[in-house]
Amino acid sequence: MKKAMRLFITGSVQSMFFDQFIKENADKLNVRGFLRKLEDGRVEVFMEGDHEKVDEMSTICQRGSRHTQIRKVEEKEEKFQGFNAFKLLKI
User: Fold this and answer.
1) Using CA atoms in the order 86, 50, 82, 34, what is the torsion angle rounded to 10 degrees?
2) How many CB atoms within 10 Å of residue 78?
3) Residue range(s) defining the domain that contains residue 26
4) How far apart are CA 21 and CA 54, in angstroms?
5) ∠ Cα 17 15 11 (to 5°)
6) Do residues 49 and 2 lie in contact, with contact meaning Cβ atoms separated by under 8 Å?
7) Where are the alpha helices (H) located in the chain, listed in sequence order?
8) Which of 21, 40, 55, 64 can pair with 68 through a Cys bridge, CB separation 3.0 to 4.6 Å?
9) What's the CATH number where 25 sits?
């Protein structure tokens, strides 16, 4: 079963280490979508794929890497859009 989810992550997540951490895990889990840094300092992650893999990726995003401190994560179920890769976007 397919699932799509959008996360808005607040904390010390503006480093490129966090971006790479998320991308590497998304690629490993075959989760597709994107990550982009928002002007207000939050990070937006849109992800889609197999239900279990998206849930696992959500847990990884909420935990963060060793170099991050996550303060708040907002989750929102989304409509599946059919991305073919996981990308790091620039605003």
Assistant:
1) -20
2) 14
3) 2-89
4) 15
5) 110
6) yes
7) 16-29, 51-63
8) 64
9) 3.30.70.100
- Residue 32 half-sphere exposure toward CB, CA atoms < 13 A: 10
Residue given tokens 């996360």 in the structure block: 7
Q: What is the domain count for the chain?
A: 1
Question: Alpha-carbon dihedral of residues 52, 19, 45, 65, nearest 10 degrees?
Answer: 50
Whole-angstrom distance, CA of residue 4 vs CA of residue 68: 24
Q: Is 4 helix (H, G, I), strand (E, B) or coil?
A: strand
50-62 pLDDT tens trace: 999 999 999 999 9
47 and 26 Cβ atoms separated by less than 8 Å: yes
d(CA 60, CA 79): 21
Averaged confidence pLDDT in the chain: 93
- Give me the residue label for tokens 């994107």: 34
Q: What is the DSSP letter of 15?
A: S
